[in-house]
DNA sequence: TTAGGGTTAG
């Protein structure tokens, strides 16, 4: 029963107030890490805004500088033990206040609890609101509950503040826990408490629960006010439920509660979120049409800009931004951040926004700088990006990893790996705690700059920086290794990723399988042995095929849906090489002696028809069951095999799978239908000598491959592949499946089928085990 | 000693 051990204030795990469920800080989430992510930025903002003095649990100082280091040592030990030892309560309370100012909430609570154990605590001497305020800014629900427990006679306002902490932390469970505590203490739940509860549900995305609370409130005879409706509409807005938002607004109007700017702003946000830009402007008009007109504020402007930008109306967003001047709004960094971010393709506009802000004396915060640097990066203005940061630093603005991460992203976008590497070294020497996304941006820059070796060095550096590479790190590196066709590097990355418990994604899977296919094709071309007969049956057996199949399997297990491209590549790795001696060996392996010169179509007897490893069928059948390739009905007349949207290997195996199915139907005594194969066509324009263009159809690569396959198999077809459709006659097919064998006298009489049939029969039994009924053939 | 609103890429 411990709270998140990596709390923002970097403290030791603590027991929770609530029994059973541990409270977790909501802002320490995991992100995808490329090039930055919201959660990390939020976390960083919290860290830099509220906690200038950070100590890591292991005693390392996170935000390293001398001043911080000194102040760290002014504080008592995190375990709080030596604080109480023989010290006067007033001294302990001033220690408490110092800790509170530093935002070290867990230690604050521990100190108070320690005093309580020693019967030295008088909670009347502690200012409650300040503690709850800090809890709100740090989303420290757990500490807030523990603190409340120390108050001997909590009032309704105490619970209101506690509830408010839950609200800011989006902890609806905690909020309902507070409600229970209030009821247990026999207080009457007031409007403020209900409103905060509604707001908590709103922030946690629980719209239905929110309305339940609202109705309960009304039923309990508590009158909702403008704050309550504000929270309600906000909840609808966050959930993108415009209709409900206006519904709540309607109730509010019908109860004669006068809407204020907060309510209108929430309505505009709701419209913007669901793409209803015009309606957002209607709300703006409504604000001005009130008996006492309400001017827009910076939040209105921000919401309107976002509404426009969400709908792709960048020009309109820029017009809205100008309203800042019209209404003489000074604004806060947030609204300027929205403006730059929503129009980040327009570097000139971003610069104007930055100027306006500077002129109005609004100090940019880290988030704004980060977005501005992004915009510079998008515009390819790498020097400008560095300048922005230098200027900010000169102005004494606290710059953290969020902005530096954007700068790294800008280096990466500008494909300037040297600058990226310099920045990385600078960050290391500044002892700036880097994030995975920063390093991912560096690795991207290095890979783009064809510096795979350096990128791999950075990867091995990461662990030393206390960073765990994520799936994006490995994806970037694998893409680079594929670009260089460096399978060894790829396999090394793959095994390292496995060790790091990074599950395969499509990018990683595609890169490895792509390299495997290239390696396999090359080996086939060079005549290297890639097939073994060890199991008695021909099997494509080599390292490339094994790795490709393994990665394909692993990806499926990890829940990755393979694409047609990946499927085709895997099948490519199961393709038997065109090699006369191999073909002879395949026939020989059948164990029938036949006059090959008279009978060229023995391929129908071989598993995989001498073209593919039989495992290819299972792969395609599985792909059909997953909907990656369409299913074929073997019962329709004619059987239609549509390979128009398939790649070469897939098209080939797909067709062979149908043939295999029909072979089994024939063995079961069915009459074979005709088979129609639909082939893709490529149109090309011919200049006719008489003038005017003429469009003709050409057989594409897939069509040619399919036709060539049928010719190799000795299976006759009608029609021409350049018409997009060919046909195999059912009778022809039957004869092909039942070749007349000239069997050697040692094996039986000529024309005697028994031995080869029994062999064939065994083969079929074996194959039938692999077949999933209802997959490819929807019988 | 108490309540409602915003900011980040691909």
TrEMBL record:
Gene3D superfamilies: Tetratricopeptide repeat domain. The keyword NADP does not apply. PROSITE patterns: PPR. This is Pentatricopeptide repeat-containing protein MRL1, chloroplastic isoform X2. Residues 197-323 form the Pentatricopeptide repeat-containing protein-mitochondrial domain. Signal peptide: none annotated. It comes from Juglans regia (English walnut). The gene is LOC109006547. Keywords: Repeat. Residues 748-779 are annotated as: Disordered. It holds the Pfam family PPR_2. PPR repeats lie at residues 190-224, 225-259, 260-294, 297-331, 400-434, 435-469. NCBIfam families: PPR.
